[in-house]
Amino acid sequence: MTPLALEPITAAGLLITDTCPARCRHCYVVAGPDRTGWMTAQAAAAHFAALARLGVRAEGIHVGGGEPFGDFERLLAIVRAARSAGLGGVGYVETNGGWATSEALARERLATLAEAGMRQLAISADPYHQEFVPPERVQLLHAVAREVLGRGGVRARRWKWLHEARDVAAMPETARLDLFRTFLQRYPERMAGRAAEQLSELVPRRPVEELPAEGCRRALLQSRHVHIDPGGWVYAGTCAGIVFGCATGDRPLDELLGRWRPEDSPLLALLAEGGPRRLLDAAARHGFTPAPGGYADKCHLCWSVRKHLVRAGAGDATLQPPEIYLS
Ligand code: SF4
Question: Domain ranges in the chain?
Protein backbone atom coordinates (compact mmCIF):
# COMPACT_ATOMS: atom_id res chain seq x y z
CA MET A 1 0.00 0.00 0.00
CA THR A 2 1.25 3.54 -0.81
CA PRO A 3 2.56 5.25 2.34
CA LEU A 4 0.21 7.81 3.86
CA ALA A 5 1.09 11.40 2.93
CA LEU A 6 -0.78 14.69 3.18
CA GLU A 7 -1.27 16.36 -0.20
CA PRO A 8 -0.61 20.12 -0.45
CA ILE A 9 -3.71 22.18 0.30
CA THR A 10 -5.33 24.59 -2.14
CA ALA A 11 -8.31 25.65 0.01
CA ALA A 12 -9.11 26.44 3.63
CA GLY A 13 -12.03 27.55 5.75
CA LEU A 14 -11.59 29.68 8.85
CA LEU A 15 -14.40 28.74 11.24
CA ILE A 16 -14.06 31.93 13.24
CA THR A 17 -16.62 31.00 15.89
CA ASP A 18 -18.54 27.99 17.15
CA THR A 19 -21.27 30.10 18.69
CA CYS A 20 -24.52 30.44 16.79
CA PRO A 21 -28.03 31.52 17.74
CA ALA A 22 -29.26 28.43 15.88
CA ARG A 23 -28.72 24.79 16.79
CA CYS A 24 -29.34 23.15 13.42
CA ARG A 25 -29.93 19.42 13.46
CA HIS A 26 -27.47 18.81 10.61
CA CYS A 27 -24.57 20.89 12.00
CA TYR A 28 -21.40 18.80 11.71
CA VAL A 29 -19.33 21.23 13.82
CA VAL A 30 -21.97 21.12 16.59
CA ALA A 31 -22.27 24.92 16.81
CA GLY A 32 -24.89 26.51 19.03
CA PRO A 33 -25.73 29.18 21.61
CA ASP A 34 -23.93 27.24 24.36
CA ARG A 35 -20.56 27.37 22.54
CA THR A 36 -18.52 30.53 23.05
CA GLY A 37 -15.29 30.23 21.05
CA TRP A 38 -14.11 33.06 18.83
CA MET A 39 -10.94 33.30 16.75
CA THR A 40 -9.08 36.56 17.33
CA ALA A 41 -8.32 38.80 14.35
CA GLN A 42 -4.65 38.34 15.22
CA ALA A 43 -4.90 34.53 15.00
CA ALA A 44 -6.83 34.81 11.72
CA ALA A 45 -4.11 37.09 10.34
CA ALA A 46 -1.50 34.45 11.24
CA HIS A 47 -3.54 31.73 9.48
CA PHE A 48 -3.92 33.92 6.38
CA ALA A 49 -0.17 34.62 6.33
CA ALA A 50 0.49 30.86 6.53
CA LEU A 51 -2.03 30.21 3.73
CA ALA A 52 -0.29 32.83 1.59
CA ARG A 53 3.04 31.08 2.19
CA LEU A 54 1.41 27.80 1.15
CA GLY A 55 0.32 29.41 -2.12
CA VAL A 56 -3.44 29.20 -1.37
CA ARG A 57 -5.32 31.85 -3.35
CA ALA A 58 -8.12 34.12 -2.13
CA GLU A 59 -10.79 32.19 -4.04
CA GLY A 60 -9.84 29.06 -2.11
CA ILE A 61 -10.47 30.68 1.26
CA HIS A 62 -13.75 31.05 3.07
CA VAL A 63 -14.84 32.36 6.46
CA GLY A 64 -17.62 30.62 8.37
CA GLY A 65 -18.65 29.42 11.80
CA GLY A 66 -20.90 29.07 13.82
CA GLU A 67 -22.40 32.34 12.72
CA PRO A 68 -19.59 34.79 11.83
CA PHE A 69 -21.94 37.81 11.67
CA GLY A 70 -22.52 37.41 15.43
CA ASP A 71 -19.58 39.83 15.93
CA PHE A 72 -19.58 41.97 12.82
CA GLU A 73 -16.61 44.18 13.77
CA ARG A 74 -14.47 41.09 14.33
CA LEU A 75 -15.64 39.55 11.04
CA LEU A 76 -14.74 42.78 9.24
CA ALA A 77 -11.30 42.88 10.85
CA ILE A 78 -10.72 39.26 9.81
CA VAL A 79 -11.73 39.86 6.18
CA ARG A 80 -9.43 42.90 6.11
CA ALA A 81 -6.61 40.78 7.55
CA ALA A 82 -6.74 38.52 4.48
CA ARG A 83 -5.89 41.48 2.29
CA SER A 84 -3.14 42.62 4.63
CA ALA A 85 -1.64 39.11 4.34
CA GLY A 86 -1.41 39.61 0.58
CA LEU A 87 -4.27 37.29 -0.31
CA GLY A 88 -6.44 39.89 -2.03
CA GLY A 89 -9.46 39.07 0.13
CA VAL A 90 -11.48 35.91 0.83
CA GLY A 91 -13.49 33.78 -1.58
CA TYR A 92 -16.69 33.84 0.43
CA VAL A 93 -18.24 34.37 3.84
CA GLU A 94 -20.97 31.98 5.02
CA THR A 95 -24.01 33.09 7.00
CA ASN A 96 -27.39 31.79 8.07
CA GLY A 97 -28.82 35.29 7.47
CA GLY A 98 -30.60 35.52 10.82
CA TRP A 99 -29.04 38.93 11.48
CA ALA A 100 -30.62 40.49 8.35
CA THR A 101 -33.48 42.22 10.14
CA SER A 102 -33.69 45.18 7.75
CA GLU A 103 -32.73 46.08 4.20
CA ALA A 104 -30.60 49.01 5.41
CA LEU A 105 -28.54 46.82 7.76
CA ALA A 106 -27.99 44.14 5.11
CA ARG A 107 -27.01 46.73 2.50
CA GLU A 108 -24.54 48.48 4.79
CA ARG A 109 -22.84 45.30 6.03
CA LEU A 110 -22.52 43.69 2.60
CA ALA A 111 -21.09 46.85 1.02
CA THR A 112 -18.58 47.19 3.88
CA LEU A 113 -17.46 43.56 3.60
CA ALA A 114 -17.17 43.73 -0.18
CA GLU A 115 -14.95 46.78 0.12
CA ALA A 116 -12.83 44.94 2.70
CA GLY A 117 -12.23 42.00 0.33
CA MET A 118 -15.20 39.58 0.56
CA ARG A 119 -15.79 38.30 -2.98
CA GLN A 120 -18.99 36.37 -2.41
CA LEU A 121 -21.67 35.80 0.22
CA ALA A 122 -22.83 32.21 0.79
CA ILE A 123 -26.26 31.97 2.40
CA SER A 124 -27.27 28.80 4.25
CA ALA A 125 -30.94 28.06 3.59
CA ASP A 126 -32.53 24.69 4.26
CA PRO A 127 -35.22 23.24 6.52
CA TYR A 128 -32.71 22.76 9.37
CA HIS A 129 -31.74 26.44 9.38
CA GLN A 130 -35.35 27.53 8.97
CA GLU A 131 -36.18 25.93 12.31
CA PHE A 132 -34.30 28.91 13.75
CA VAL A 133 -34.06 31.61 11.09
CA PRO A 134 -37.26 33.15 9.71
CA PRO A 135 -37.34 32.52 5.94
CA GLU A 136 -38.14 36.17 5.17
CA ARG A 137 -34.72 37.17 6.54
CA VAL A 138 -32.74 34.90 4.22
CA GLN A 139 -34.91 35.93 1.29
CA LEU A 140 -34.38 39.60 2.12
CA LEU A 141 -30.63 39.07 2.48
CA HIS A 142 -30.47 37.22 -0.81
CA ALA A 143 -32.34 39.98 -2.66
CA VAL A 144 -30.14 42.72 -1.18
CA ALA A 145 -26.95 40.73 -1.83
CA ARG A 146 -27.85 40.41 -5.51
CA GLU A 147 -28.21 44.17 -5.73
CA VAL A 148 -25.10 45.07 -3.74
CA LEU A 149 -22.75 42.27 -4.84
CA GLY A 150 -24.22 41.37 -8.24
CA ARG A 151 -25.57 37.98 -9.38
CA GLY A 152 -22.17 36.31 -9.11
CA GLY A 153 -21.60 37.81 -5.68
CA VAL A 154 -24.06 35.59 -3.85
CA ARG A 155 -24.90 31.91 -3.66
CA ALA A 156 -27.31 29.92 -1.56
CA ARG A 157 -27.19 26.39 -0.20
CA ARG A 158 -29.91 25.22 -1.00
CA TRP A 159 -30.92 27.47 -3.83
CA LYS A 160 -34.26 25.84 -4.60
CA TRP A 161 -35.29 25.79 -0.93
CA LEU A 162 -34.45 29.49 -0.55
CA HIS A 163 -37.32 30.39 -2.87
CA GLU A 164 -39.82 27.93 -1.44
CA ALA A 165 -38.66 28.26 2.19
CA ARG A 166 -41.23 27.66 4.88
CA ASP A 167 -41.20 28.74 8.51
CA VAL A 168 -40.21 25.38 9.97
CA ALA A 169 -40.38 26.76 13.51
CA ALA A 170 -44.14 27.11 13.09
CA MET A 171 -44.61 23.44 12.11
CA PRO A 172 -45.46 20.66 14.58
CA GLU A 173 -42.60 18.21 15.27
CA THR A 174 -44.13 15.37 13.21
CA ALA A 175 -44.42 17.65 10.17
CA ARG A 176 -40.84 18.85 10.68
CA LEU A 177 -39.55 15.28 10.78
CA ASP A 178 -41.47 14.45 7.59
CA LEU A 179 -39.94 17.50 5.91
CA PHE A 180 -36.42 16.56 7.06
CA ARG A 181 -36.92 12.97 5.89
CA THR A 182 -37.97 14.12 2.42
CA PHE A 183 -35.18 16.69 2.26
CA LEU A 184 -32.59 14.07 3.23
CA GLN A 185 -33.72 11.91 0.31
CA ARG A 186 -33.15 14.88 -2.02
CA TYR A 187 -29.95 16.13 -0.39
CA PRO A 188 -28.20 13.45 1.71
CA GLU A 189 -26.19 14.77 4.66
CA ARG A 190 -23.03 13.27 6.07
CA MET A 191 -24.16 11.80 9.38
CA ALA A 192 -21.48 13.20 11.69
CA GLY A 193 -21.70 15.65 14.58
CA ARG A 194 -25.24 16.74 15.42
CA ALA A 195 -26.58 15.17 12.21
CA ALA A 196 -25.58 11.76 13.57
CA GLU A 197 -27.39 12.47 16.82
CA GLN A 198 -30.54 14.06 15.45
CA LEU A 199 -31.09 13.08 11.81
CA SER A 200 -29.71 9.58 11.39
CA GLU A 201 -32.99 8.04 12.62
CA LEU A 202 -34.66 9.47 9.52
CA VAL A 203 -32.66 7.53 6.93
CA PRO A 204 -32.24 3.78 6.33
CA ARG A 205 -29.51 2.09 8.40
CA ARG A 206 -27.21 -0.80 7.64
CA PRO A 207 -25.29 -3.15 9.91
CA VAL A 208 -21.57 -2.45 10.34
CA GLU A 209 -20.51 -5.33 8.11
CA GLU A 210 -22.48 -3.86 5.19
CA LEU A 211 -20.83 -0.44 5.43
CA PRO A 212 -17.98 0.36 3.01
CA ALA A 213 -14.70 -1.07 4.28
CA GLU A 214 -12.34 1.18 2.32
CA GLY A 215 -10.11 3.74 4.01
CA CYS A 216 -10.70 7.48 4.16
CA ARG A 217 -7.42 8.56 2.61
CA ARG A 218 -9.19 10.73 0.06
CA ALA A 219 -11.32 12.59 2.64
CA LEU A 220 -8.54 13.03 5.18
CA LEU A 221 -5.33 13.43 3.21
CA GLN A 222 -6.21 14.12 -0.42
CA SER A 223 -9.08 16.61 -0.24
CA ARG A 224 -6.52 19.44 -0.45
CA HIS A 225 -8.40 21.56 2.00
CA VAL A 226 -8.62 22.05 5.75
CA HIS A 227 -10.87 23.86 8.20
CA ILE A 228 -9.43 25.76 11.15
CA ASP A 229 -11.65 26.15 14.20
CA PRO A 230 -11.75 29.09 16.66
CA GLY A 231 -9.11 27.47 18.89
CA GLY A 232 -6.73 26.79 15.98
CA TRP A 233 -7.55 23.06 15.62
CA VAL A 234 -6.97 22.08 12.00
CA TYR A 235 -9.64 19.66 10.74
CA ALA A 236 -8.77 17.25 7.96
CA GLY A 237 -11.03 18.30 5.07
CA THR A 238 -14.62 18.36 6.31
CA CYS A 239 -14.08 15.68 8.97
CA ALA A 240 -14.79 17.93 11.97
CA GLY A 241 -13.18 16.65 15.16
CA ILE A 242 -10.29 14.85 13.38
CA VAL A 243 -7.27 17.12 13.44
CA PHE A 244 -3.70 17.40 12.22
CA GLY A 245 -2.90 19.51 15.27
CA CYS A 246 -3.37 23.03 16.60
CA ALA A 247 -2.04 26.02 14.62
CA THR A 248 -0.62 28.56 17.04
CA GLY A 249 1.81 31.48 17.04
CA ASP A 250 4.64 29.04 17.86
CA ARG A 251 3.55 26.51 15.27
CA PRO A 252 1.78 28.21 12.37
CA LEU A 253 -0.46 26.34 9.96
CA ASP A 254 2.10 25.91 7.17
CA GLU A 255 4.68 24.48 9.58
CA LEU A 256 2.11 22.19 11.21
CA LEU A 257 0.94 20.75 7.86
CA GLY A 258 4.47 20.58 6.45
CA ARG A 259 5.71 18.54 9.40
CA TRP A 260 2.67 16.29 9.80
CA ARG A 261 3.50 12.57 9.75
CA PRO A 262 1.04 9.65 10.17
CA GLU A 263 2.84 8.49 13.31
CA ASP A 264 1.87 11.82 14.96
CA SER A 265 -1.83 10.94 14.63
CA PRO A 266 -2.40 7.19 15.06
CA LEU A 267 -6.20 7.32 14.90
CA LEU A 268 -6.17 9.54 11.82
CA ALA A 269 -3.75 7.14 10.16
CA LEU A 270 -5.96 4.15 11.04
CA LEU A 271 -8.99 5.92 9.55
CA ALA A 272 -7.07 6.84 6.40
CA GLU A 273 -5.97 3.25 5.91
CA GLY A 274 -9.06 1.31 6.90
CA GLY A 275 -11.97 3.66 7.60
CA PRO A 276 -14.00 3.57 10.82
CA ARG A 277 -14.34 -0.23 10.81
CA ARG A 278 -10.60 -0.28 11.54
CA LEU A 279 -11.33 1.49 14.86
CA LEU A 280 -13.76 -1.12 16.10
CA ASP A 281 -11.26 -3.41 17.84
CA ALA A 282 -9.70 -0.53 19.76
CA ALA A 283 -13.14 0.82 20.61
CA ALA A 284 -14.36 -2.61 21.81
CA ARG A 285 -11.55 -2.64 24.38
CA HIS A 286 -13.14 0.52 25.80
CA GLY A 287 -16.65 -0.89 25.93
CA PHE A 288 -18.00 0.13 22.51
CA THR A 289 -20.62 -2.13 20.98
CA PRO A 290 -22.14 -1.35 17.58
CA ALA A 291 -25.74 -0.12 17.61
CA PRO A 292 -28.12 -3.04 16.93
CA GLY A 293 -30.06 -0.91 14.47
CA GLY A 294 -26.94 -0.21 12.37
CA TYR A 295 -25.69 3.05 10.92
CA ALA A 296 -26.76 5.50 8.24
CA ASP A 297 -23.32 5.61 6.62
CA LYS A 298 -19.70 5.07 7.51
CA CYS A 299 -19.36 8.64 8.86
CA HIS A 300 -22.17 7.86 11.31
CA LEU A 301 -20.20 4.84 12.56
CA CYS A 302 -17.03 6.94 12.62
CA TRP A 303 -18.70 9.66 14.70
CA SER A 304 -20.19 7.13 17.12
CA VAL A 305 -16.86 5.36 17.69
CA ARG A 306 -14.92 8.64 18.06
CA LYS A 307 -17.45 10.05 20.52
CA HIS A 308 -17.33 6.85 22.55
CA LEU A 309 -13.52 6.87 22.67
CA VAL A 310 -13.34 10.51 23.78
CA ARG A 311 -16.04 10.04 26.41
CA ALA A 312 -14.26 6.91 27.69
CA GLY A 313 -11.04 8.95 28.01
CA ALA A 314 -9.46 6.85 25.27
CA GLY A 315 -9.20 9.39 22.42
CA ASP A 316 -5.82 10.61 21.25
CA ALA A 317 -4.41 13.96 20.10
CA THR A 318 -6.24 13.40 16.81
CA LEU A 319 -9.74 13.75 18.28
CA GLN A 320 -10.12 17.44 19.09
CA PRO A 321 -11.52 19.71 20.37
CA PRO A 322 -13.14 17.83 23.30
CA GLU A 323 -16.20 20.15 23.29
CA ILE A 324 -17.31 18.83 19.91
CA TYR A 325 -17.61 15.33 21.40
CA LEU A 326 -18.91 16.31 24.83
CA SER A 327 -21.55 18.91 24.00
S1 SF4 B 1 -15.76 7.93 7.96
FE2 SF4 B 1 -14.78 9.41 9.37
S3 SF4 B 1 -12.77 9.84 8.48
FE4 SF4 B 1 -14.01 8.84 6.89
S5 SF4 B 1 -14.91 10.54 5.70
FE6 SF4 B 1 -16.40 9.98 7.31
S7 SF4 B 1 -15.96 11.34 9.06
FE8 SF4 B 1 -14.17 11.41 7.67
Answer: 11-187, 217-326
What's the 147 CA to ligand 1 centre distance in angstroms?
39
How far is ligand 1, taken at its centre, from the CA of residue 224, in Å? Answer: 15
Is 64:16 a contact under the CB 8 Å cutoff?
yes
319 lines ligand 1 (CB under 6 A): no
> Is 216 near ligand 1, meaning CB less than 6 Å away?
yes
Pick the CATH number of 11-187 from 3.40.50.360, 3.20.20.70, 3.30.1220.10, 3.10.450.50: 3.20.20.70
Encoded amino acid at 27, one letter: C
pLDDT band with cut points at 50, 70 and 90 for residue 114: very high
Whether the per-residue pLDDT at 284 is higher than 90: the answer is yes
Please give the C-alpha separations between residue 35 and each of 67, 71, 305, in angstroms, as whole numbers: 11, 14, 23
Q: For ligand 1, say whether the CB of 39 is within 6 Å of any of its atoms.
A: no
Q: What residue owns the CA closest to ligand 1's atom 1?
A: 299
pTM, full prediction:
0.95
Atom of ligand 1 nearest to the CA of 237: 8
pLDDT tier, 137 (very low <50, low <70, confident <90, very high otherwise): very high
Q: Cα-flanking dihedrals φ and ψ of residue 78, to 5°? A: -70, -45
Q: Is the CB–ligand 1 distance for residue 220 below 6 Å?
A: yes
Looking at residue 249, its amino acid is: G
Residue 7, φ and ψ in degrees, nearest 5: -75, 150
**225-228 and 233-236 as β-strands: parallel, antiparallel, unpaired?**
antiparallel
